[in-house]
Amino acid sequence: MLTYARAQSARTGIRAIGPSGGAALRLLAAALDAKAVVEIGTGTGVSGVYLLRGMRPDGVLTTVDAEPVRQQYAREAYRAAGFAGNRARCIPGRARDVLPRLADGQYDLVFCDGDPADSGFHLTEAVRLLRPRGVVCFEGVFQEGRLAEPEADDPQTRAVRDLVADIRESDTLLPALLPVSDGLLCAVKR
Ligand SMILES: C[S@@+](CC[C@H](N)C(=O)[O-])C[C@H]1O[C@@H](n2cnc3c(N)ncnc32)[C@H](O)[C@@H]1O
User: 116 alpha carbon to ligand 1 midpoint, in Å?
Assistant: First the structure.
């Protein structure tokens, strides 16, 4: 059940992916027959439950969050949703410190939902981590509408604009922007 993870999200005010974005993540994980997924930004575990539902029954979700208490919520959410403890590897720490420790080319899907200001770093690391034909996804690229507002010039929005441009201009990536949740920007590694 997702009820537990969403209730924790509502109680704590930690933002979580919406049902449409979650369904897209689940579908992607299933279409990729994903055995290994990296998530940046565990939160209370809502997106993790969607990913685990789409992955192979023996697949492992590696999920990173700078706030260990959130991973405690997430672990409880995975358990409440019926997933064994060994299906999720929760790594506490900042993405900038943790991602470089993960192995090259071993992951089917990288889901980025951490600090948008670090999007460029997340993209570089995702391309390194993905196997060929793997997929990277960024949640929240609409920035609650700010992406399309010319006067919006905060560092977060600027970082997401740079991310969109980098993905569009990349020879390595084949992108698609899904209008689900707050904008899910996906790209296949060629
Ligand atoms: C929007 S929440 C994630 C929600 C979750 N993906 C979901 O849909 O249920 C963003 C998370 O990113 C984490 N975060 C923010 N900056 C981070 C960083 N530099 N490294 C790792 N995690 C970070 C926050 O602690 C927060 O839990």
Answer: 9
Domain, as residue range, for 54 = 3-189
99 lines ligand 1 (CB under 6 A): no
Residue 122 and residue 114 in contact, taking contact as beta carbons nearer than 8 Å: yes
Q: Is the CB of 24 under 6 A from ligand 1?
A: no
- The angle formed by the CA atoms of residues 96, 174 and 123, to the nearest 5 degrees, is 5
Residue bearing the CA closest to ligand 1, atom 5: 43
Looking up residue 17, the CATH number of its domain turns out to be 3.40.50.150
**ipTM associated with this complex:** 0.99
Q: Which residues contact 142 (CB under 8 A, 6 or more apart)?
A: 148, 182, 183
Cα 43 to ligand 1 centre (Å): 5
The number of distinct structural domains making up the chain is 1
CA–centroid distance, residue 114 to ligand 1 (Å):
4
Average pLDDT along the chain, 190 residues, taken 10 residues at a time: 86 96 98 98 98 98 98 97 98 98 98 97 98 98 95 95 97 97 97
Q: Is the pTM of the predicted complex or chain greater than 0.90?
A: yes
Does any ligand 1 atom lie closer than 6 A to the CB of residue 17?
A: yes
Residue spans of alpha helices (H) in the chain: 3-12, 19-31, 46-54, 68-80, 95-98, 119-129, 155-169
